[in-house]
Amino acid sequence: PPLDQCFNLHDFESVARQVVKKGTWAYYSSGADDEITLRENHSAYHKIWFRPRVLVDVEKVDSSTTMLGSKCEVPFYVTATALGKLGHPEGEVVLTRAAGGHGVIQMIPTLASCSFDEIVDARRGDQVLWLQLYVNKDREITKRIVQHAEKRGCKGLFITVDAPQLGRREKDIRTKFDGAASDVLRYNPSAIDRSQGAARAISAFIDPSLSWKDIPFFKSITKMPIVLKGVQRVEDVIAAIEHDIPAVVLSNHGGRQLDTAPSAIEILAEVMPELRRRGLQDRIEVYIDGGVRRATDIIKALCLGAKGVGIGRPFLYAMSAYGEPGVARAMQLLKDEFEVGMRLVGAKSVDELGPEFVDARGIGVH
Ligand code: FNR
């Protein structure tokens, strides 16, 4: 179907499913084990209802915000997803160009198909990029990746902490890794097992011994704000605050790691009241990702205290199906939905959003 027949993020998924290679679909779409968390990520949003406010002048709506101190036009960002060239021959730069056109922040994966320099060079003006970090056993490799990113103007370091080992995504395991994006494995290609899917092939890169003890090391090699991506309970958010970490991403890695881990929106609903009880709510920015497919999902997350949300698969699908115009349209649709959602909820700007705009009893908030 022509691009102008895509009217929401789900439409891109249906098209991508038909047009991408089998192995690509397996890697992009899969979740761990029985994919219960994968399904829950999106359906959790359906347990939250709005409490719209009427008779507010919403002629002008301001969707802009800041994330980690950087301005952005909307409160969502492109989260890190590895192996962009499985879906599009040009890889992640396609996402970069679209994000640049929309004032959207992009998180670059360590295991991107494009090199970090190619992505930085595809940037528009002072477009903001973050780096997602998989920590390698060889800390010199890690140090080189981090310091290079900082030198090239990267504005945040997101250390993935939910993947000491990659989860079992069986659709992916059944497919042989086709190597189309093999330049991602440039860091230590000899350790690669190509026989069982893309996730297995990249698993060898990651150091499972990573722990809280390593945080000072990261602080010693960079001035970028350090963010933990993949935190899943309130105790660990508090530990992050104790380690002077300025932000966390509540995430279950798009349902790709521990199956039956809770959705990020439910963790958020537990975390924020606890932080408020302890007077810690201003000490840390909390982001969430997983299953965000509608602007109403984003608005709910903001109401419950998220500073912003990450979106993964929908942009990969838009990229795979239609290239840069597809990703740009996906972003525009989401911006349009966001503006409509804000008007109908009765909020003029993102800082007006709060828990009073939602009924979250369905996820245990009373
Ligand atoms: C991911 N994700 C991910 N996360 C990360 O920290 N490093 C990575 O390399 C990847 N790679 C990756 C590949 C693919 C194909 C997917 C779908 C996801 C997880 C990602 O950052 C994010 O947590 C989820 O994708 C969010 O869920 P949605 O928006 O895809 O539902």
TrEMBL record:
<dbReference type="GO" id="GO:0005758">
    <property type="term" value="C:mitochondrial intermembrane space"/>
</dbReference>
<keyword id="KW-0560">Oxidoreductase</keyword>
<feature type="domain" description="FMN hydroxy acid dehydrogenase">
    <location>
        <begin position="1"/>
        <end position="363"/>
    </location>
</feature>
<keyword id="KW-0479">Metal-binding</keyword>
<comment type="subunit">
    <text>Homotetramer.</text>
</comment>
<keyword id="KW-0288">FMN</keyword>
<keyword id="KW-0496">Mitochondrion</keyword>
<keyword id="KW-0285">Flavoprotein</keyword>
<dbReference type="GO" id="GO:0006089">
    <property type="term" value="P:lactate metabolic process"/>
</dbReference>
<keyword id="KW-0408">Iron</keyword>
<dbReference type="GO" id="GO:0004460">
    <property type="term" value="F:L-lactate dehydrogenase (cytochrome) activity"/>
</dbReference>
<protein>
    <recommendedName>
        <fullName>L-lactate dehydrogenase (cytochrome)</fullName>
        <ecNumber>1.1.2.3</ecNumber>
    </recommendedName>
</protein>
<comment type="similarity">
    <text>In the N-terminal section; belongs to the cytochrome b5 family.</text>
</comment>
<comment type="similarity">
    <text>In the C-terminal section; belongs to the FMN-dependent alpha-hydroxy acid dehydrogenase family.</text>
</comment>
<dbReference type="GO" id="GO:0046872">
    <property type="term" value="F:metal ion binding"/>
</dbReference>
<keyword id="KW-0349">Heme</keyword>
